[in-house]
Amino acid sequence: MVGDIWSHMVQSAPLARALAPAFGADSEEAFSIAMLHDIGKLVFFDQVSALRKSQRRPVNLPDAWLARALEQLHEPLGAAAAHQWGLGSAAADAIGSHHRRERPSARHPLAETLFVAERAEHARRCRTAFDYDGIWSLGELTGEKSVCHGILGRQLRNAA
Questions:
Q1: Which runs of consecutive H residues, i.e. helices, occur in 57-144?
Q2: What letter does residue 143 receive in the DSSP assignment?
Q3: Of 115, 122, 104, 138, the residue nearest 23 (C-alpha)
């Protein structure tokens, strides 16, 4: 699972770099933050590993519980790690809100970029269509959808 998470972050980063201008975000910052956007999952696994080591026994977590814990905790854990590492509030906020579960009170170009890059990477990996209208509605996005369509079309063709 850790390898899949790492691969997902690595695959999302070039998409975020390419998409950033359509949202008014900095391309290199978007690349860097996309490389870290799911770091909260790795922080979680690091803590489980430390617990296993201190207890000197396996830590058995039911699959459904683990999936739910990662879903709920990875954004706040990732944001806390970004703050601790001194990455700045914009980076921490983007990592902490990249699924856009709660509607932002202000526009956040970096979080919007991450949202689309992650969704595009999931669609690529699962070989499913990328629903631009649905994703723009779900994420309440302000970026230029038609520009993103062209960018993702090129990026995903080049990755194939």
A1: 63-84, 89-96, 109-126, 132-139
A2: S
A3: 115
Buried b (16+ CB within 10 A) or exposed e, 37-49: bbbbbbbbeeeee
The answer to whether 117 touches 152, Cβ cutoff 8 Å, is: no
Q: Which residues contact 152 (CB under 8 A, 6 or more apart)?
A: 15, 18, 19, 116, 120, 130
pTM, 2 dp: 0.89
Helices 109-126 + 27-36 axis angle, to 10: 60
User: What does the block give as tokens for 68?
Assistant: 């739910």
Which residue's structure tokens are 């969704």? 119
Query: Could you identify the residue written with the tokens 């009170």?
Result: 105
2 pLDDT tier (thresholds 50, 70, 90)? confident
Q: How many CB atoms lie within 10 A of CB 99?
A: 17
